Amino acid sequence: MQKKYVYINLILFSLLITSLNSCKDGILSENHTAYFGGEIENPKNNFVVFMKNNKVVDTFYLDKNNRFFHKFDSLTPGLYSFKHDPEYQYVFFDKNDSIMIRLNSNDFDNTLMYCGRGDEKNNFMMELFLRDIELKNKMFEMYEKDEKKFSKYLDSSYQSTTKLYTKRKSFINWSDEFDEIAKANIELNHAYKKEVFPIIHEFKTGKSIKTNLPKSYYDYRKRINVNQPNLLHYSPFINYMTSMLNNIVLTDSKGSLDDMSLENNIKKLQIADTLIKDKYVKNLVVNNIANMYLLSDQCAVNNGKFFNLYSKLVSDEKMKSDVMRTAENIKKLKNNNVLPEVSLLDKNEKLVKIQDLLNKKTIIYFWTKQADSHSNYSHKKVNELKLKYPDIQFIAININNTHEDWLKEIKANNFNNSIELRASNFEELKSKWVINKVYRTMIINKNGTIKDAFVSLFDANFETYLN
């Protein structure tokens, strides 16, 4: 972690937090008064959005020194998030906390530092996040190993993180409410990787091990309570729930990963309905299933059957509306349609029309420097494919880095095997091409129409899609 400059600059930042530190005793006498502020180096825009449960609580505008500061007369303790497009992070407030942040938006996560009352627990939460990102990058190849090697590696990391949690808890005086979040972070991130292992292993190797795992493999599920509304909008919880339901259905399925898409997803809805009692948790999880289903099955008859059950289970009308809008956008990406235009820039920051480039068979893939391992492996995979398929054109699209950061990454990693472009508007890309993650690849016919918009470079059967 590149924190050194943060500590140095915190000295310069002291004027902003002196008033908070000097009045810590005073603010404790007020009921739920809390403070939130900070400074953003190299800001991408002039505001910070403060949210609770994915809903905007307030918007704070930066002053001429790129700082913001806000007093809440009453702030309910709990987990919040703040967003400085395109990045976001979590912040936990206990009663009367006065939390300040400092970060460089060019390296958002690695430079984020909390200070003031409530800083220690939030810095620990950030430490857990960065450890998990580092582990995910290291795990990329581990998913190809056998179960014993995979579990030994993952369990060793889990034990190390648990020891760190115990150590931090012993000298940081955090609340029971925060403790629940910290423990959930560790358990859910560990469980998520256990859930996706049999799926990714088969995906990458073509070999199914889902029915050959030890009987004790899924014991961790007993430690996880799926009816926790306080975790409803916490990404580790959503990631775990999605992967767990997916894994249960695929383990029970006699077919391959691609078989029985309608049946599998209806089973997911039924399992979620049985397993989850809290209506808010059920709404979000079922909605997540719907969004994932839309990316895998474009049969109109199947969609009707699926959404008939989906509509009975989800009580949130806005969620239903958003899902149906996604369904309409996905229809535009069906085979033999023309790929919709989005805002793409070349290395000289000139706007590029994607159709002007699609004059031969093309593979379009995505990357970001925030997913280091994926970006390196995807470019490496393209090197291999270019040798086998010299007539295919490759286009790599960066999805959420600044122009300067993008160019630095291309140069530092010697990415020269593809036409490198950058999406200047991620929300547009997300909507028109339904890109939510970097693990998507699109195959385009030589006449510029879509052959398949929903595949992956790392699918063991990927090359069969090229024929």
Automatic annotation (TrEMBL):
Any one Pfam family match given in the protein's UniProt record, by short name: Thioredoxin_8
Record-given protein name: Thioredoxin domain-containing protein
Keyword annotations of the record: Signal
Annotated source species: Flavobacterium difficile
Gene3D superfamilies found in the cross-reference section: Glutaredoxin
SUPFAM superfamilies: Thioredoxin-like
Signal peptide: 1-24
Record's keyword annotation contains Signal: yes
Ranges where the Thioredoxin domain occurs: 333-467
InterPro entries on file: Thioredoxin-like_fold (IPR012336), Thioredoxin-like_sf (IPR036249), Thioredoxin_domain (IPR013766)
